[in-house]
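Practice problem: predict the structure.
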Amino acid sequence: MGFNITGYSTALFSTWYFIEELGILFDAGEGVTSGLLQKSRKIKHILISHADRDHLTGLLQLNQLNAREGFPVVYYPEDCGSFPALEKFSKKFDTHVKGTLWKPITETSVIKIKNDILIESIRNNHIEAPDNMAKSLSYKVVKTKRKLKEEYKNLPGREIKKLIEEKGNEKVTKEIRTNVLGYSGDTPVEDYYRWDNTDILIHEATFLDENNQREVNSRGNKHSTLEEVIRMVSEINIQKLILGHFSSRYSAEQIDTHIRKLCDKYAINIPVYRLLPGEIKRDILNGVSINK
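Answer:
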């Protein structure tokens, strides 16, 4: 399943990714509306990973320009208290945005955005929280289809149609799910197999240096290193990798050199793309992979 993905992701400053074909925006950092211009009108579903300002400060402007009855729908972690306050403020400040829907979700929510497309939320530990709370989420986009059960596969079409009429479609077919896209949000690498068998993975890689990671993780929210992400990808099955959220302390040359070096070290043969600090990247997957 091909996607036109546009994004911007620089640690501390702003992160957002727009999946045009699905009308999905992952996070809504500063500059999302000016970056997308008229295309921002196509956004129907906004999935916020957590309440850090660099992931949501573009939300008010985006909503102010594009709100209409029932859209966009803003999904956010239920245990983040900032969002009800933000909703209340936005509707008071811009009275015409009252049609926007704000929906709290949990770590096991399933959101149906099309007949055959679901989004599953997954808890991550970017923000430490008690076991019964989830303040930071990752997301998985899942495509579904129904396939005839093996015992009916060789029956004539007429008989299959009759069986469906008598028993119902769910009794005669089984659901097949394909993980077409994963979005990590901000998170340390925790579970290698969370993203196994995912076509496209968008993952943060804030640090090139583990010393920087330890320093920041010890006094704040947790992030990934590039090597952790590449090592994980080497042990699972994905088709394409998009790396972002690099710290602006690194130059483009440093980032690209590290990516190529680690792709060689871990024998990464899939295409790897990256969003450099300070740059909007349009139609990411149509570009040249950094490890070509």
